[in-house]
Amino acid sequence: MMGIIYFIININQNEKEEFVKVEQDGTKVNISNKLKEKKEFDGLKVENVQLTEKDGQSILLANVTNTTTQDLDSFFVDIILYDKQRNEIGTILGFISPVKSGQTVELKAGITEDYANVYDIKIVNKE
Q1: What are the CA-CA distances from residue 110 to residues 8, 35, 42, 101, 113 (Å)?
Q2: Residue from 63, 70, 126 nearest 102 by CA
Q3: Which one, of 83, 95, 1, 73, lies nearest residue 34 by Cα?
Q4: For each successive 10 residues of the chain (127 residues), what is the average pLDDT?
């Protein structure tokens, strides 16, 4: 008599998207505490980082404050995305509009990839 052996493989979906909460409308919201930490680069302070994904479009929003004593012209930045092991998993091009000393502007960047599960980011001036 031949028997059939069944193997059940349990794939842990929570591990795959450890830093994601899915809203009722299907929007994925990043919940990584590391992502939300204040970041600084070139005299700019980046706070209130939000990363969402819906319908294949990832959107990153953040407040950028000019902490220097000089007014800055607009410029492009690379937003480097990292997983929990600190591996680079992608880059999003961002644009910061002119910002006067002490002023805060919104950074908004998007890409047609699902990067909702990012652990952390680093922002660097593209110049």
Answers
A1: 39, 16, 22, 26, 9
A2: 70
A3: 83
A4: 45 64 95 96 96 95 97 95 94 94 95 94 90
Query: Can you tell me the distance from the alpha carbon of 5 to that of 54, in angstroms, rounded to the nearest whole number?
Result: 40
- Three-state SS at 24: coil
Residue 65 near residue 47 (C-beta atoms within 8 A): yes
CA distances from 64 to 40, 73, 85, 97, 106 (A): 9, 13, 26, 10, 6
- Annotation: CATH topology of 35-125: Immunoglobulin-like (2.60.40)
Dihedral sign, CA of 42, 43, 44, 47? Answer: positive
Single out the residue of 89, 43, 35, 24 nearest to residue 60, CA to CA: 35
pTM attached to this predicted model: 0.83
Res 73: pLDDT: 95
